TrEMBL record:
InterPro entries: OxRdtase_Mopterin-bd_dom (IPR000572), OxRdtase_Mopterin-bd_sf (IPR036374). PANTHER family: OXIDOREDUCTASE MOLYBDOPTERIN-BINDING DOMAIN-CONTAINING PROTEIN, PROTEIN-METHIONINE-SULFOXIDE REDUCTASE. Pfam families: Oxidored_molyb (PF00174). It comes from Microcystis aeruginosa PCC 7806SL. It comes from the Bacteria. This is Oxidoreductase molybdopterin-binding domain-containing protein. Coiled coil: none annotated.
Length: 199
């Protein structure tokens, strides 16, 4: 199994792969539960909680924002990594220019079609490398990979890059998401191997 689908990192890629990870030959798909099927014309994205005004965006609203191409490495907590993944999407910073956060906002909960949630501190969420992706390697993001839209948080394990995202709830305290409540680490830094626990 290791030789066919995964391999140990070797120079020059060795320094790009966190400890305990193997390089994937493809792009594995891991999903808990059913895969939501959402048409872009029906897709909505809500922002609420510790914000001045609750806002709801449709697909056209998102597509009107500046679009960029991103090439980032991707690390899954199940010990595989994929290097140089190319996405097209929208910088979190460009989207957040539309949102007036209240001063007490310190955390954010990602909400997704299908009921999945995962938490981030506000600082982690606003990281300059984060983006919302709607294309993967130049093609529309398929439902298996989180389409029509997912968040990508390259500096943390991939469960923090929620698939099928449809909302952000800004909070004044930490709340744990689905996997965090089931034993995963509350932060998930792959370089520190923050896989489980962390309380």
């Amino acid at each position: 199994m290791l030789g066919k689908f995964f391999k140990k990192p070797a120079s020059p890629d060795q320094d790009r792969v966190p400890p305990g990870q193997y390089l994937a030959s493809g792009f594995p798909v891991l999903t808990y539960g059913d895969t939501p099927q959402i048409k872009t014309e029906e897709w909505l994205f809500k922002v609420w909680g510790k914000v001045a005004t609750t806002k709801i965006f449709n697909w056209s609203d998102f597509m009107a924002l500046p679009q960029s191409e991103f090439t980032k490495d991707f690390h899954c907590v199940t010990r595989w990594s994929k290097l140089d993944v190319t996405w097209t999407g929208i910088k979190v910073s460009d989207f957040m220019a539309l949102i007036d956060l209240l001063p007490e906002a310190t955390h954010v909960m990602q909400h997704c079609y299908g009921g999945y949630t995962t938490n981030l501190t506000l600082e982690e969420f606003l990281h300059e490398d984060n983006f919302f992706a709607f294309q993967l390697f130049g093609q529309p993001l398929t439902p298996d990979h989180g389409g029509p839209l997912r968040l990508v948080v390259p500096h943390l394990y991939a469960w923090k890059s929620s698939k099928w995202i449809n909302g952000l709830e800004f909070l004044d305290r930490e709340q744990l998401g689905f996997w965090e409540l089931n034993g995963y680490h509350r932060r998930g830094d792959p370089w520190l191997e923050e896989r489980y626990g962390g309380f």
